[in-house]
Amino acid sequence: MKSRYQRSAELFQRAQTSLAGGVSSNVRALAQPPLYFRRASGACLVDVDENVYLDFTLSQGPLFLGHSPPAVLDFVNQAMRDGQLYGAQHELEVKLAEQIQSIVPCAELLRFCNSGSEAVHAAIRAARAHTGRDKILKFEGHYHGWYDEALVSAGPSLVQAGPREAPCPVLGSDGQLGSSGANVIVRPWNDVGLLRQTIARHGSELAAVIMEPVMCNNACIPPQPGYLEAARDLCTERGIVLIFDEVITGFRLDLAGAQGFFGVLPDLATFGKAMANGFPVACLAGRDYLLQPIADLQVNHSGTYNSNVMVTAAAFATIKELQRLDYQRVHRLGEKLMSGLKALAARYGLSVLAQGFGPAFHLAFTERDSIVDYRDSLEINSQRNSEFVGAMLDRGIRLLSRGLWYLSAAHTEADIQRALDAVEDIWSAG
Ligand SMILES: Cc1ncc(COP(=O)(O)O)c(C=O)c1O
């Protein structure tokens, strides 16, 4: 019998001899079965076997306006008629910078780059240049991209990580410089007492504290009440640069990002993903005195493709749409989905935990009633989750294998009901 995913399977097989592992990003190799897509619009995708999916992956988050929003694509096409890359400035990048300045509380100055990983790299460099210190404090389970120093303890095994209170920095990849973790102090997130102790002890060595203000990359963990504020105060007291990595939360949790949503101002913030609805652009934004050394050319931040016309136009048009968007509606839809999932789990006697926020939340198969840090998230039954994601895919609902659900402005009440119907179909069968 012909498989539902036959053409994708053939393409994946063929790709093995030209693309390493058949994919262009390691993260994509985790999705099973590997699918090839033909087109997408709104909240729906169509694969090469003509299967139609309701999409809750949104390409790992960027597509907050949904797939192929006409206002963005038209603006990009129009802008591209005039040119693509000047190796110099153009007016739209100034307009985009001003637009972001008017929205993002910490954005006194900005620089554009091509990916979240690059923006994080720039943020750490700017923090080191300003403080003259080398070390950074990051948190277990937080992902800040794939560059050497950032890819430390993003998903470590506990055998390697050791004690909760003072985990060893664990490298995420073969081929990373062995010393990549040498200047990285790792701690569990959401533990104010431990943060206070660590900063008391290491404050004078720390250039930066970097965190996802919501730990979206592992179980979508919200900050404990007062945690972000405490981090803010501790960094201020010791002259440490507080970096919010808003690559996921930026323009998604709120137009003004997590910093606007929670009302806590970092010194530097990184944005990507939702800022251009799928076009490859990111930015570093922050206090003027931290970006001034870049302005003075004391700190190198460069890039051939930075602020090219295509991505600048995409970001400008996306943010213009986002300025008109009813964020509360997306929050409400996501919350409705979360509570629907919980109600179904209760009906069918399953232990699940749905946590996070409407625009991005996590569904976990676990007995726990809350997950507050990375080590808690290790108690999730990931096998159960993989089976669930596969069963949903067979019913035309595309989810991320790691349990994160992304909502977009293109999702409707009917989509939420469709997803819940598919879940009920699976859970009612036992
Ligand atoms: C919080 C966070 N920071 C940084 C990155 C890296 O961004 P990019 O994949 O654009 O390099 C990601 C990617 O998922 C992320 O989730």
Describe the structure.
The protein is of the alpha/beta class and about 425 residues long. The chain has 2 domains: about 5-65 and about 325-430, Aspartate Aminotransferase, domain 1, CATH 3.90.1150.10; about 70-325, 3-Layer(aba) Sandwich (Aspartate Aminotransferase, domain 2), CATH 3.40.640.10. About 35% of the residues lie in helices and about 15% in strands. The protein contains 14 helices and 14 strands. The chain has helices at about 5-15, 70-80, 90-100, 115-130, 160, 190-200, 225-240, 255-260, 290-295, 310-325, 325-345, 375, 380-395, 415-430, and strands at about 35-40, 45, 50-55, 110-115, 135-140, 185, 205-210, 240-245, 270, 280-285, 350-355, 360-365, 395-400, 405. The chain has a 7-stranded mixed beta sheet, with helices on both faces. It has a 4-stranded mixed beta sheet with strand order 1-2-3-13. Bound molecules: pyridoxal-5'-phosphate. Pyridoxal-5'-phosphate binds near residues 115, 117 and 145.
